[in-house]
Each structure stands twice: as structure tokens, then as C-alpha cells.
Amino acid sequence: MNDRLQRLYNIIKEKDLDGVILTDGYNIDYISGYKGHTGMLLVVNDTSYILTDSRYTEQASLEAKAFEIIDIGMDGYSKTVKRILEDKIEDSHTVSLGFEDKSISYTQYKALSDALGASVSLVELGDVVNKLRMIKSQDEIDLIAKAEAIGDEAFNHIINYIEVGMTEKQVALELEYVMKSLGADGLSFDTIVASGMRSALP
């Protein structure tokens, strides 16, 4: 079990929960390594799951090796969660399931609540999982330094690339191309290029 998953188990123990369900894609990636951003992470008792649809099961199995990958099929997320809980928790006590109240839509929450019924108590986790990501490991620090170096190199390129008459879209496209060429996986946010009168419209 990786250290991040162990820290999630520690949260379950500290809050006296039977399990947790994560819906924030960044937290799912952080805990499991699954980068699909389509799915849920469920931990119940001593078993950890990634729930997703058939488009992502292969990716999830490659990236989240410590997790059991569940294809939700036609049941959808809520019924799949209910089935797992019924299989994993045999006694009749009310199940306490932590959930990410800051990243779940009302539609998702209502579907879960309706499917699980009165036998499951949904407990708000607040920022407790997000806070796990605040303290960076040495590997994370190295990756941040690499990302900063890519940004610096791309910026130095772009200030020599810009010419009068170019559109903002042309400059943004070149900047994104250079960053990815240098090894960036993606962008933290949409590229903002603004000049002249449009400088006040970022």
C-alpha cells in the first residue's frame, strides 16, 4: 500500500468511518495514480476501488495497480457503490461513508443518497483530503522545479517569437506547443495572451 493511500486509511480511522468516496479528480489521481478524471475512488474496510466506465478501465488498471477496478456498466455509480457496500459490510449497523462535499454536484449527492438510503450516513469530509496534498514529497518538489523550468524556457522562447500583426491565438498556440514539446503534460489553466487595448481584458 502506498503512503498516500495509507494516509487516506488514517483519515477513515480518525473519523470513525466505514469508508470514503472521492469524487475530486485531482484527489483521485493523488491517492491512486489514476489520471482519467472520470470516475470515483471508494475505500471500504480493507479494499480500495476505482469505479469508472468501460472507456477508462484499462487506463485505471495500468495507473492504479493497488486498486480493484470496477466497471460501473449500466448500473451507474450510485448502484455500484451500494452493491459494494452490501458485499463488504455484513452487519446491520448504519454505515458511515465520508464524501467530498466540496467537489460533488447536488445531482451526484442526491443519486448516492437515494440509492444508499437510510442505512448509510453520508459524512462531509470538508478539506481533509485536500490538505493531504499540501505537504509535498521530494518527488513532487522535483516535478514542480521541472515544470517551472519548462515555463521559463517557453516564456524566453515566446518573447523572441512574437511579431507585430500576430493574433493572441497564434501566440497562445505557440506557447502551448513549446511547453508540451519541452515535456509538459498539460496546462494548469487556459493560456492568457493579451496586448495593447486588450491588456485590460485578461
Task: Give a brief description.
Helices cover 44% and strands 14% of the residues.
Radius of gyration: 21 Å
Number of helices: 7
Characterize the biggest β-sheet: 6 strands, mixed
Low-confidence stretches: none
Can you give a write-up of this model?
With 202 residues, this protein is of the alpha/beta class. The chain has 7 helices and 6 strands, in the order αβαββαβαβαβαα. The radius of gyration is 21 Å and the shape is elongated.
Index terms:
elongated; alpha/beta; 6 strands; six-stranded mixed sheet; 7 helices; about 200 residues
What topology does this entry show?
Elements: H1 3-14, E1 19-22, H2 25-32, E2 40-44, E3 47-52, H3 57-63, E4 68-71, H4 76-88, E5 95-99, H5 106-116, E6 120-124, H6 138-161, H7 168-181
Parallel strand pairs: 1-5, 3-4, 5-6
Antiparallel strand pairs: 1-2, 2-3
Helix pairs in contact: 4-5, 6-7
